[in-house]
Amino acid sequence: MVVNSMRLDKFISKATELSRKESKKIMHAGEVTVNEQVVKDPGLHVDIVNDEVMWAGEPLSVATGNRYILLHKPEGFECTLKAKEYPIVTELIAVPELGSLRIAGRLDVDTTGALLISDDGGWLHRVTSPKHEHAKVYELTLADAMDSDAQANAVREVAEGILLEGDHEETKPAILEFIDDTHARLTLEQGKYHQVKRMMGYFGNRVTELHRASIGHINLDGLDKGDSRFLTADEVAKF
């Protein structure tokens, strides 16, 4: 058995999400090659790094370690593991074994922006835990215009912490910056349930559009809605 080896039927199943039984069927049909040779033995061990496995002329591969993905979430997708009323965000990512992926800091169906997704549970915890103080920047549009006095009051109270309805502790100090009378930027180091919308509700206003521009040192850098990319090793290590 070679280093990084795996049974061929298991390899195909992981790379395509076919069942092991279905993987054996395509092998028996002569549709699978390993290093340009047709292979029908499902028990053959392949080197998942160095061997070239192809199905119907298309190369197959499996992840050799944990995956760390940045997605620009569009509207109309749920951050859940199973679809309810809307499609789920992992449907936008073209990688095998989607079921093992988890989301760091969910966004509402109507909220857009940066979403970090991985199968590394410890890393996801470090991303979301308030004690690690990874700031998240949100851009928001308000239903009602706020004059300069109302803006100054909101900026001051948010910087001190406010007690949201139903909570027992005030929010951690945050930074609220107004771009104009209906647009603002909010920087948080925690992630209470619907926190941004509830904070604006505290001031008698309503968020009509919400976008998460960045998480910690990660921003979207021109990534279009619905598109994703793998994080670099350096980006992963900074969390």
TrEMBL record:
Per its record, what are the GO molecular function terms? 16S rRNA pseudouridine(516) synthase activity; lyase activity; RNA binding
Q: Which residues cross the membrane?
A: none
Enumerate the PROSITE patterns for this protein: PSI_RSU, S4
Q: What is its EC number?
A: 5.4.99.-
What are the alphabetically sorted keywords of the record? Isomerase, Lyase, RNA-binding
Reactions catalysed, as given in the entry: uridine(516) in 16S rRNA = pseudouridine(516) in 16S rRNA
**Recorded superkingdom:** Bacteria
Q: Which Pfam families match?
A: PseudoU_synth_2, S4
Please give the coiled-coil regions recorded for this protein. none
Instruction: Write the protein's name.
Output: Pseudouridine synthase
Where does this protein come from, organism-wise? Psychrobacter aquaticus CMS 56
